[in-house]
Amino acid sequence: MAPPRTSGDGGPVLALFLLAPFVGEFLLGNLTVPELGLGVLLAPLYGCGALLVREAARRTGGGWPVIALLAAAYALIEEGPVDQLLWNDSYAGQDLLHGPSYVPGLGTGVELVQAVLALHTVWSVCVPIALVEACVPARRTTPWLGRRGLVVTAVAYVLGAALVFWGNYAEEHFLASPAQLALCGAVVVGLVVLALRLARRGARPPVAGSAPAPWRVGAAALAGTSLYWGPSVLLTADWFEWIGVALWCAVAGFGVRAVGRWSRQEGWGARHVCALAAGALLTYVRAAFPVRPESGGSLTADLVSNAVCGALALTVLARAVRTARLAESERPMTPAGPSRSARSGGRSYGG
Fold this sequence. Notes:
Layout: H1 11-27, H2 36-59, H3 64-82, E1 102-103, E2 108-109, H4 110-135, H5 147-172, H6 178-201, H7 214-234, H8 241-262, H9 270-287, H10 299-329, H11 340-343
Antiparallel strand pairs: 1-2
Helix pairs in contact: 1-2, 1-4, 1-10, 2-3, 2-4, 2-5, 3-4, 3-6, 4-9, 4-10, 7-8, 7-9, 9-10
């Protein structure tokens, strides 16, 4: 079997390399504009991680379910073995573990694991991938890296992860137990295996009905991510923790079910995927303002940085939405007859 062909220049690669840490750290409000140097250090971990997730999914013919599962594996690697956040009860001077949802046998909290999966799966990986793919519609589902580029990206990711691990250990002097690392590793392997099985299985058969309009999909994404993210930022009291856990499960369960159905209906396409990313991105733009940077600093500098990063994010979003809409309008019309899904033997175009 011939290896997947790559096409075009390295523009999308560079864009994703930069956009992943920007969304994951700066747009969220963890880092401010004056801390761009830290962003450069984090780019190999975030950017190369997102590139590897996308490349693995696209090279195996997998769509967004595969990307999401691999992104979840990335999330657990970053906050598990790399920076140890999942088990460190004094990370950055804060105890994020010992709330009502803390599980002594695991040494971590349910709420923290959920937050890690949400932040990195959705925003650090899936949103940047969706936005960059929307900007290059002709290359949306093709690999972007050749063999050499894939090797360089993998090496840069490992070096970036090692740098973050070393920096955190030098500051925190914390190491998780072998049992904790082994359990995390087993979950990561399980997610990767499941992703590869989904890729081999191919798309599920279409379902009856037409997909909602892209703006409705985007509004649903904005509402769902805001429903989870807003209270989790503003309500930090112990009494809310288990409510937040249940809310996360409800939003995630409904979201997976709804998108899983919509993406197999007639009319679903790249604009819908872009709309999902848009809704999630707008939640981050709004939610960044109550988030205080990890480094502290003045409130004025924080607000200015949030405004600058929000404006940049909206600029990228506008480009992605405009390009996706233009690509759809220029798509050749097909003669009346069986639906796309029927003509393709039941494959879904959720991408």
